[in-house]
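Marked as duplicate of an earlier ticket. Keeping the data here for the record.
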Amino acid sequence: MGHGKSTDISVREVSISFEPVPYRAPLKFGGRVVSSGWLVNAEVTVESRDGRQASGSGSMPVGNVWAWPSAVLEPDQTERAMKEFSCGVGQLFQDSVICGHPLEIDAAAATEYPQLASRTVTALGLPEAPPILAQLVSASPVDAAVHDAYGRLHQLNAFDTLSRDFCNQDLSAYLDDRFRGEYADRYTLRAPVSALPLYHLVGALDPLTSADGGNRPSDSLPWTLGEWILADELTHLKIKLNGDQLDWDVERVLAIERVALEAQQQRGCTTWFYSCDFNEKCRSADYVVEFLRRIEASSAAAFRRIQYIEQPTSRHLQAADAPQMHAAAAIKPVVIDEALISYESLLMARDQGYSGIALKACKGQSESVLMAAAAQKFGMFLCVQDLTCPGASFLHSASLAAHIPGVAAVEGNSRQYCPAANTDWAERLPAAFRLRNGKIDTSGLNRPGLGFH
């Protein structure tokens, strides 16, 4: 760990708590439906070499249905296991004897996650261990809280503590020799961008028009896609697709194009974008190529609006029959999401033809900063995705997106599916939750720590 710096910290105390998240409407993706959830909230106290202390907090949805789509465990079992793992991570950080930068503390703790996963299996009597993605998600609130506390201790935004002045090791310690002599400040912004477009999710169950039926909630929020476009002046729509029903997928995009065209004409908007998320359900890149070909043949305008394709095939990049993405990526950027669990997975994805990555705060602040650096060095497309993150977890995601150069937009769908969980934070930082011309104001996300406390 080198000789250390006066800015180094040790973790003194970690507490973990859980908070239920009620859903306004169910969300369907990857063939699964989510209608409730939990937040993992972490509070951390850190201490500097000279005895000063500061506290920080992190918050993230459990996200088990996405992070651990098990064939042998029920969702309530994976949810319980991820909560158990979060508590174990808290203990790992609290027991850590390392004094250093948050990146170092997180990297050291992560080496113990496989053993923690084994202990979780034993404690709960499970037939399988939490996969790496589930481990990252479970650990992310603690990692976030450490970065938050570190920044608050030094009265600096966490993204301003990534330089040689604070880090004992350069990026090559976490990535490879291509990053020797480089630090993450090179790949992050000193001031957040002032605003970011927000990607609005169009789930597979979401009504496009009032004719689609469904049970309209008894609140004043928009319900149909057309209503959302007009209310929030949306310019970015993320479309959930099936990936194994080509006709349905093509028609879904064309139907969304028809609704969007009418609503955008009504408000005088001529430029908007789509992303297409298949949640791993495509068997091959051929499916994506044919999907894009059919969209272009039916509506050249809809085709032009597609900004990128997200994780069309399985997250298991190391499989012998892992699909190659070169043909699809030659048409539109293709990003990995579920597959991005390490630097090794990013390199493997590049070799397989993927041309971009989706960053997610739920994979950890440390991991996100490192992957953002790698993606920029390799000239990859960058976006920041959501895990239906409400409240503080959404602000963490927005702050991440606003501090990384080249991020196209940030996704934020808690306002659609679990808006009640946003209430407290929306009162404190209304500009970050209120859309104007399809954008949120991110200029205020530059406070000490993660940027919003």
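See parent ticket for discussion. The chain has two domains: 9-170, 195-441.
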